[in-house]
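Q: Here's a chain of 379 amino acids. Please give me its 3D structure as C-alpha cells.
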Amino acid sequence: MWKHNFLLGMGMLLVSISCSESVDIVHYGEWKANKKIELLDSVIVDASNTSGRGNFFMQDSSIYFADSYYMSIFQYDFVSASCVGQYFGRGQGPNELPSFMYAYPFKNGNRECFVMDNSLGMYTYREGDFSLEYKGRIDFGWEHLSRNDYTSPSVYNLMEMTDFGIDLTYLNDSTILLPINLINRYLDKVSEERYEEGHIFAELNSKNMKVKKVWGDFPNVYKQRPTPFFEFFQYAMNKDTLYVNHATDSLIYVYKYPNNLLYTVGYESSDVNRNYTVGYDVEMSNFKSDIRIVGVNSGLLYVPEKHLLFRTTLKRVLNREVVIQAYSNNDLILDADMPNSFKLLGFWDDYFYGVSLLPKEDANGNIHFIFYRFKIEGV
C-alpha cells in the first residue's frame, strides 16, 4: 500500500483484485489520524501461580489468561490488580482437560467460550458457569484425503495459532466460522496455485463437528509476493460485514458475508517494513532473518460500542514494537505507538483494555502480567 502522504486528500483509489482479473475495487477512507491516546494506565499483576505460557482474552470487565501448561483459566480484575478466579485443570475428571492449546470466547457466542485441545477436540463453557462440555473433534475429512483439491476441506487445518490469537465465530446456531491454513504435506508442490485456488475460511457444522465447506480468497499481495511463512490473518465481523487483514498487507478487505468483496480500507503506518523474502519455497534461515526486520499485522478488532475498527501491527516481529490504528467510517483517525508486545483485548465502561503478551519476570523468577487501559481523545 502506498504511503499515507501520497494518499492525503484522496477519497478513494482503485486497486486490482487479482493479476488475471480486470475488475477493480474501490478503496475508501482518508488519512485523518489526528486523534491521540489519552489516560493510558497500566497495572502489574502477580501471575506467579501461572506458567506464563498461554493466551489472553477479555469478557466484560475481566481479563482472562488461558494457561496451556497448567490447563487452567485465570480470571483477573484490572482495578484491584489481582487474580479473582481459577478454573479447570489437567486431568481426566470433570472440568479437567487431557490436553490444551488455547481458549477464547466465541464471537457472537452469547457468552460461550471454547477450549481447544491438541487433537482439535473442542470443549465449551459459559462465563459464570465454567462447566466444561466436550463437543467433539473438528473433522476436516483427512481420512478421505483429496490431494491437491483446494475445494476439499481435507487439505486444510485450523489456522496455526500465533501469539496474536484466533477467533471462531457463530454464524448461526449450527454453523461456526473457522480461519484455516493449507497443509503443505497434502499438496504435491507449493506453487502459484496455492494463492490462486487456496482458501482461508471454513464453515463447521457445530452439531456433528464436520467441516462442510471452505471458501475465501488470498489477496493479490500473496500472488505477487508469495510467502508461506506469513500466511496468517485476522478477521472481525459487524453483523454481515466481514473485515479481513492479512499479515503482510496494509489493506483491510471489507466483504459482505460471505465472499462479496465490497471495498478496501487501510493505510500503512510509518516505519513498517514489508520487505520479506519472496518465494514459494523459502528457507527457514530466510524467515529467521526476516523476523528481525519485517513487520506484520497482529490484531483486528471491531468495537461496536464506538463503531471503531482497530488494527495493531508489529513494526518488526522480534523487537515487538507495536502501532495501533483506529478507523471510523473507513477513515484512519488514530495511528499511535503502544507499549511493546501490546495486544488490544476489548472495551468496557468507556475504556479500551489491552495486555503485554510477554510476561515480566523479576529477579526471583516470579511472573507478572502487565494490563493496560486507555481512552482516545474525543471518542
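Q: Can you summarize the key feature?
A: Helices lie at 4-7, 193-197, 220-224, 284-293.
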